[in-house]
Amino acid sequence: MAERETPGAGTPPDELGRTVAALRRAARADPGRYLPRLGYTLLRFGSLLATEPGRMAESVDVLGEAAEVYRRLSGEHLPGLGIALQRQALGLGALGRHQEGLEAAREAVEVWRGLAAEGVEGSRAELAGALLVLGGRLAETGRHHEALDRIHEAVETRRLLVDRADGTGRTELASALQELGVKLGEMGRREEALVPLRASVAAYRETAGTAGGRAVGDLGGHAVAAFATGRALLGLGRTDEARPYFAEAAALHTEITAREPAATAFLDHLFALHGHRLTYEGGIAAWTRTPDGTTSSGRPEDGPATSGGPEAPDRSDATPPARTGTTTWTGASVRTEASAEDETAARTEASAEDETAARTETSASTVPTASAEDGPATSGPDEPAAPGRGGPTRPGPAGSAASGQGDSTPPGPAGPALFERIDRLNARGLALADSGRPGLAVEPLTEALALGRTAAVGTGAAGAVSLARTLHHLAFARAWSGRRTEALEAVDEAVHLCRRHLVDAPETVRPLLADATDSLGSRLAVLGRHRDAVAPATESVALFRQLAHADPAAYRDELARVLNNLSIRLCDADRHAEALAATEESLEIQRSLHREDPAAHLPGLVHALANLALRLARLDRHDEVAAPTAEAVRHLRHLDRIHPNNDVAALAGSLAWLGGYLRRHGHRDTARDTERAAGELRRRAPEPGR
């Protein structure tokens, strides 16, 4: 191929396509020289095709090819991979290929997470955008709670990126807040949706006076946020409050029409999708159905339509116009999913009866090892925080009273007495679960949950934290008694409560959220959703890093624990190099703790060493497996007493597998000692408590 520049901006698609064809031939002959240019040109070509009517499928294929090129290049070209995957995920979603879009969006988030962790400039902003795209794809597959998690994370990421001095990043935050409000509204949580929606509108208003005026895309995002706020208020029967938001959306529609008429097609589509239309007078009105079956438009002040109203529009009478323009709103800020009432695809969870690889849960008295049933186990038993420790499992002021006396008294107003009663029920449930009777623990914890929901009304962060703590405890009891899907539902709700109140009470909520996200990862993994489990496990590590930095004495052991669990999640997701890195960091902390207090931290060190050996084996680093295995066996000889909550069965299974592995790779002496240690451990094992 002759040396020449890649065609510049404004190049017609067909000409760019011819350049791509030439670069393909050149890259086959000289990959080192031409692959980077091919990847870049494919990315441009695929993005341009996405704006051409009827060429979205072609765009998706080209962006997929760009992603393959960037995978081959890796290294400094990883940002190109992240962009290609993110745009491909958007295209796949538009084509209705939701599962493929979800996979591309997940990979994009993983790429940007890695780049953000390395401190690559601009990667955190790109991560936020990728998280919003992932949220949309998760919602399309019925995983609304997971979608909400990712959108919350995007909002917090963008909040941190706003420059307080000049306001840079404020529009991006407004877009993410609007997305969060829309998602909450889709889930029927209109009152909660109002908070981010109003914040979004306020942030957009602050950008209205920017020099040079706002881009059409930003005006569109503002219009969508105002319209969504009006709809949420209308759905709550607050018509007077809704009216100015509808008027604001209509005024923005007029401004966009004056600047780029074709760009309003999407807003018209959105209004019609939700049963509204723009009136000739420049307002927004809702379609209503008259008794004779015809349609007319009623103004917002008339209240929600009795038939075909804003929450359930009659699609036959509100057919959206085709989108003819090429303008697209930035990021994933504009969403047109139906409301939660219209959703027919609820999130599907695997049943406990179908579970074939249940994990044994252990308390935080040890850092657990990986299971060894089928090779260098991809995962081992996870480790929830033990009752009586910090964070979510710490009882409240009356938490030490486990007798439950007076628990039959009907609940009164939310006050100290009600919170103390909830604490007593929590303490009783935890005591039963920890003594090996998780089935019996569910009853007092379920009672505490009912009281907690009452107490949470009107008590702000305090009530929400109490409710989240109870949900977290109930999740453990349900998991330990085999009710895994119900356990996931409980901890998922606990995580959402914590997210909503982290800003209100960070010192109280952060430890609870750190433990709850770790538990959420475990619950997802138990149900076989290993890739989904990585994100909450990663978040848990990030939160415990913050806590350990502020208070090392209280949280270093917790950081080691969740790093171990993250390594398991990564291994389950076939990300073995990253799993090894997490295990090595966990082991480093365990060594430090063991030096300070050998007796207390010896079990944790043994587990961490065994996990390191398993991770090395998974990466086929045969000659490196023997050393940590032998060290673990040596330490086991000094372990006089095995705590009942120590997951001895998993450790023994791991050592037995490692013994066989070492024997196959020529380390006969170490293999013999390891197999003997596994047998001795099984004989010394206490009766299982869970």
- Uncertain parts: 288-412
Q: What gap, in angstroms, lies between the N and C termini?
A: 67 Å
Order of helices and strands: HHHHHHHHHHHHEEEHHHHHHHHHHHH
Mean pLDDT: 77
Overall number of strands? 3
Biggest sheet details: 3 strands, antiparallel
**Strand residue percentage:** under 5%
Number of helices: 24
Helix content: 55-70%
Provide a brief overview of the structure.
The chain is mostly helical. The chain is built from 24 helices and three strands.
Topology:
Layout (H helix, E strand, L loop, with lengths): L12 H17 L1 H19 L6 H18 L4 H17 L3 H20 L5 H18 L3 H18 L8 H17 L3 H17 L9 H20 L3 H21 L5 H9 L2 E3 L5 E6 L5 E4 L117 H19 L3 H19 L3 H21 L3 H18 L4 H21 L3 H21 L1 H21 L3 H21 L1 H21 L3 H15 L11 H17 L3 H17 L6
Antiparallel strand pairs: 1-2, 2-3
Helix pairs in contact: 1-2, 2-3, 2-4, 3-4, 4-5, 4-6, 5-6, 6-7, 7-8, 7-16, 8-9, 8-10, 9-10, 10-11, 13-14, 13-15, 14-15, 15-16, 15-17, 16-17, 17-18, 17-19, 18-19, 19-20, 20-21, 21-22, 21-23, 22-24, 23-24
Description:
There is one protein chain. 64% of the residues lie in helices and 2% in strands. The protein is mainly α and 690 residues long. The chain has 24 helices and 3 strands. A 3-stranded antiparallel sheet has the order 1-2-3. It has helices at 13-29, 31-49, 56-73, 78-94, 98-117, 123-140, 144-161, 170-186, 190-206, 216-235, 239-259, 265-273, 416-434, 438-456, 460-480, 484-501, 506-526, 530-550, 552-572, 576-596, 598-618, 622-636, 648-664, 668-684, and strands at 276-278, 284-289, 295-298. The N and C termini lie far apart (67 Å).
